[in-house]
Amino acid sequence: MNLPLTSKLSRNATLRESIADSVREAIIQGALKPGTKLSEPELAKQFGISRTPIREAFRQLDSEGFLKIIPRRGARVVPLTEKDVVEFYEVKAVLEGHAARLAMPRLTVSDLNKMEHLNNEMERFHREGDFKGVFKLHNDFHEVFLRACGNEYLYQLLQMLISKFQRFRMLLSLTGRSEGSIAQHREIIGAFREKNIERAARLVTDNALLGREIIIGEILKQLQ
Q1: Does the pTM exceed 0.90?
Q2: From the centroid of its chain, how far is CA 80?
Q3: Which residues contact 38 (CB under 8 A, 6 or more apart)?
Q4: Which domains can be identified in the chain, with CATH numbers?
Q5: I need a labelling partner for 24 at 20 to 30 A (CA). Which of 15, 63, 115, 150 fits?
């Protein structure tokens, strides 16, 4: 029996990207439940392709926190728990708040203008219902001041953390509840322009914690 995945792969992406998108969407939409086992041979037969791009897609989704690869046994959908969300955003809030403090004297006018442009585009994508676009722009917005923090170890630590839990940030954008984050981004830009280091750090921290509350709300609704 076929798994609940689309049988049509995008022509505008690689096979790995198309398969990863299909599995990711099925997990987010609840078609693939936590604990569901995914088999390379079964998916290869369903899509009519070799196992290589499926294996590559599994590795990508494992790195994003959607799947857990079990050696010689395939992969399983990772459960999404409130504890995971709380602990991830608590750490992210602390690290990004500190990064904002370090970035303050290093951010240029060009950096701030770029952040403003990205946030305006994020708002436009949100109005148009392009939530995948919102997700990418949200990442790009934070990337500007994280890059500017000047601490390569802190930057790499945040990138590793965010990469491992991309699932949470994708879920956040797909909820369609980005208005609060967009408004906070405006305030963050304002604090950076005013050189108000304490306000900028607090707003960046609050932005992470807002994501935590929205995702927890979505999880609890799904469990009811």
Answers
A1: no
A2: 14
A3: 3, 23, 32, 58, 67, 74, 75, 76, 77
A4: 15-77 (1.10.10.10), 82-223 (1.20.120.530)
A5: 115
Write out the two tokens for 30: 């609840």
DSSP 78: P
Q: Which two tokens stand for residue 78?
A: 């990772």
Apex 82 CA angle, 163 and 157, nearest 5:
25
Helix (H, G, I), strand (E, B) or coil at 220: helix
* Closest-CA residue to 200 (of 148, 160, 123): 148
Nearest C-alpha neighbor of 86 from the set 172, 196, 215, 222: 215
Q: What are the structure tokens assigned to 107, written together?
A: 């951010």
Residue 223 predicted with pLDDT over 60: no
Tens digits of residue pLDDT in 66-105: 899 988 778 999 888 889 889 999 999 999 999 999 999 9
Q: Is the pLDDT score of 118 beyond 50?
A: yes
Q: Which residue has the higher pLDDT, 192 or 130?
A: 192
Average pLDDT over residues 109-120: 98
Confirm if 21 and 56 have CB atoms less than 8 A apart: no
Q: Which residues 6+ apart lie within 8 Å of 214 measured at CB? A: 172, 175, 177, 180
For residue 1, what pLDDT is reported? 39
In contact, 74 and 39? CB cutoff 8 Å:
yes
Secondary-structure breakdown of the chain: helix, strand, coil percentages, each rounded to the nearest 5: 70, 5, 25
